[in-house]
Amino acid sequence: MDQRDKEAIREIVGEDHFSDELIDLVSYSYDSSDHDHRPGGVAYPADSEQISRIMQLANERRFPVIPRGAGTSLAGSAVPIQGGLVLDMVRMNRILDIRIPDRQVVVQPGVVYAALQKALAPSGFCFPPDPASGKVCTLGGNVATNAGGIRGAKYGVTRDYVLALEVVLPDGRIMHTGTKCMKSSSGLDTTRIFVGSEGVLGVITEITLKINPMPTAFRTALASFETLRQAGQAVTDIMHSGILPSVLEIMEENTIRVLRENYGADLPDVSALLLVETDGYTDGEAEYGMGKVATAFEANQAKTVSMAKDREEAEKLWAIRRAAGSVAGGLRPNNLSEDVTVPISKVPDLLEGIQKLMVGHKYPFVIFGHAGDGNLHPKIMFDGSDPQQVREVHQIAEQMFKLTCGLGGTLSGEHGIGLAKAPYMHLEHEPLAMEMMRLLKRTLDPNNVLNPGKMALED
Ligand SMILES: Cc1cc2nc3c(=O)[nH]c(=O)nc-3n(C[C@H](O)[C@H](O)[C@H](O)COP(=O)(O)OP(=O)(O)OC[C@H]3O[C@@H](n4cnc5c(N)ncnc54)[C@H](O)[C@@H]3O)c2cc1C
Predict the structure, then answer these.
(1) Which of 10, 100, 306, 390 has the fewest CB neighbours in a 10 Å radius?
(2) Contact status, residue 79 vs residue 454, Cβ threshold 8 Å
(3) Could you tell me the pLDDT band of residue 238, with boundaries at 50, 70 and 90?
């Protein structure tokens, strides 16, 4: 981007809505991963027309454009790795329509996840995916990364709720996908192409989401197990018992130790904990589900079981799980936090496999995650200022990805590929599948101007 490009962008978005001040360029060179690269400028567009004009300019002048929500990507997806213009969607933050009788909302991409939940609460509805970053991340970012959360086993991920999109294509054309109906079997599914596309195929400018009535009754329990296999079998038994728990979280022995020693949690010295929540629209429904869970705990010789009597007691159990990531993260200056995912029955294999990989390494690590949908979060702590540690930790990560894919798993259950996992795409996707992804990218973005360098889409 040169001065001429910057002037043209200022003219499109207005003088006050473009910056190339050093402080902004440094801020926008990061997301929440350990990657960084400075952009040439940042624009704050007001609508799809402005974005369309920017994309036309970017094609004429051949500079990269990187859509950005809140910059909470853990995969480097929002880092402007080849410079260019960051498009911060913060001004496009309006909830356009809440249509309860249709079970739908229409939002702009810069709406923060929690703001939508707050707006929906009085009507008793919610948008269920619930990413842990929900207080800050945007719905545009959620759609672009197919974000998920702790309730995925029962309620699925963002993809399951996106009905229609408005997208500015890389050449500036404005496209409308999908339907305002709850279902449609009409034509190829152009909406899903953009869900999880990490801003490489188009800039999402309007989103129509399906919403759910909010459950009103909950039961929560925490159980400990002497062996990982017992916990794994309890997960299998719960999933076979005819109910779907709304939360089914697992924490292995390192996580438990870190929580005991560094957070003061009153936890037994065991190999695994399961935190389970059942929900419903009546107490009886939630209670019935928890009865099945209790049977699975007993059948697998749970060492201790804490059943929360009310929301206050449940909150204490939740606090333990929520603390796991940040308490462990504080052990060293840096951490590598992954979201590898396997079929539910393979969770114990993945846990044991990662534990074996770490034998002989000096790095503290913890593993916890969503056993109910097979999504684990291994976290390895290290000092990023030491190049040897960085190298070693990335070697461990590569082995972990090989292990995951060998178990029939996926590199990313929720964070996306971005820069961090681009080198490993071939472990999961066969050459023909990679070629199809590249073909789609080339067809929509022949000049490779939209978020280039991500997801191994360049030959
Ligand atoms: C503490 C913490 C906890 C987290 N917990 C979870 C979790 O539980 N579940 C989960 O899924 N993720 C989680 N994440 C990761 C992250 O929050 C999600 O990936 C989130 O969806 C990103 O939203 P964002 O608005 O920050 O997007 P950004 O990080 O700004 O962007 C992410 C990607 O989306 C693209 N993008 C953003 N907006 C648009 C748009 N309008 N059009 C096209 N492309 C766009 C960007 O180009 C980029 O490729 C967590 C991150 C942190 C830091």
Answers:
(1) 100
(2) no
(3) very high
| Three-state secondary structure call for residue 377 | strand
For residue 451, the one-letter residue type is N
Reply yes or no on domain 93-213 having CATH 3.30.465.10: yes
Q: Which residues are bridge partners to 166 per DSSP?
A: 176, 206
For residue range 268-315, list pLDDT tens digits in order: 999 999 999 999 999 999 999 999 999 999 999 999 999 999 989 998
- Fold agreement between 216-330 and 331-416: yes
Distance 195 CA to ligand 1 centre (A): 12
Name the token pair of 266: 């009153």
The phi and psi torsions of 164 (rounded to 5 degrees) equal: -155, 155
Q: Is 415 near ligand 1, meaning CB less than 6 Å away?
A: yes
Architecture of domain 3-90: 2-Layer Sandwich (3.30)
Report which of 369, 342, 350, 356 is spatially closest to residue 274, judged by C-alpha positions: 369
Considering only CA atoms, which residue is closest to atom 50 of ligand 1? 133
Q: Report whether residue 132 contacts ligand 1, using a CB cutoff of 6 Å.
A: yes
Pairwise CA distance, residues 289 & 118, whole Å:
28
- Token representation of residue 285: 């429904």
Nearest CA to ligand 1 atom 28: 71
Domain regions of the chain by residue span: 3-90, 93-213, 216-330, 331-416
Query: Is 170 a pocket residue for ligand 1 (Cβ < 6 Å)?
Result: no
Give yes or no for residue 130 CB within 6 A of ligand 1.
no
Architecture of domain 216-330: 2-Layer Sandwich (3.30)
Ligand 1 within 6 A of CB of 32: yes
Q: Rounded to two decimals, what is the model's pTM?
A: 0.96
Domain over 331-416 is classified CATH 3.30.70.2740: yes
* pLDDT digit string, tens, across residues 370-410: 999 999 999 999 999 999 999 999 999 999 999 999 999 99
Helix or strand holding residue 392 (H, E):
helix 387-406
CA–CA distance from 128 to each of 120, 153, 435 (Å)?
11, 11, 34
Helices (H) and strands (E) in the chain, counts: 15, 18
Contact assessment for residue 170 and residue 204, using Cβ atoms and an 8 Å cutoff: no
